[in-house]
Amino acid sequence: MEDNLKLVDLYSWIGPIDSVNFDCGVSKINNEVERLFNREYDDRRVLGLVNSLGDLFGVIAFSLGTTSLIQKEHPLERYPVLSLDLLAIQKDYQNNKYGSRLLASVLRIALTMNCLVPIRGIYLEALTEASEFYEHRGFDELHPFAPGMEFQKLFMNIASIEQLDLYPYSNIFNLE
């Protein structure tokens, strides 16, 4: 596991980044990473875990959103959330806690945002094969899983995030 990694905003990063060869092992996610690097979305923040050579270990993308949290609270009401749009780790670097590190960063960003504008928590739609990763870290499923579902809708409320041993970022321009 490499320790000299930095979490950087990929849209403002000036150093080298090797995004062309990014492969997390899931073509759907690789295509989404390519769209992010081509700046096809203007409503998402994209962060990367990179080393000093510009090797890209992982990517997260998130945005502000709303969700109805059906089956968890009041049906049909919409709540502000941080939407985790993508978390991907380069295939060669998987199972080295880089995904946990990126997720912890997003949790800290949620805490930081909640200090400025109240949010209910973090919402995401995970590939079914990745849902265990999130559930193991405290996310709850919003809808019962049904065979054939491609995505699992998951949520962690802000109160649960506040119970973790994490703190809001004190400087949003330096995410270390």
Automatic annotation (TrEMBL):
Keywords: Acyltransferase, Repressor, Toxin-antitoxin system, Transferase. It comes from the Bacteria. It catalyses: glycyl-tRNA(Gly) + acetyl-CoA = N-acetylglycyl-tRNA(Gly) + CoA + H(+). GO terms for molecular function: acyltransferase activity, transferring groups other than amino-acyl groups. Residues 5-161 form the N-acetyltransferase domain. This is GNAT family N-acetyltransferase. InterPro entries: Acyl_CoA_acyltransferase (IPR016181), GNAT_dom (IPR000182).
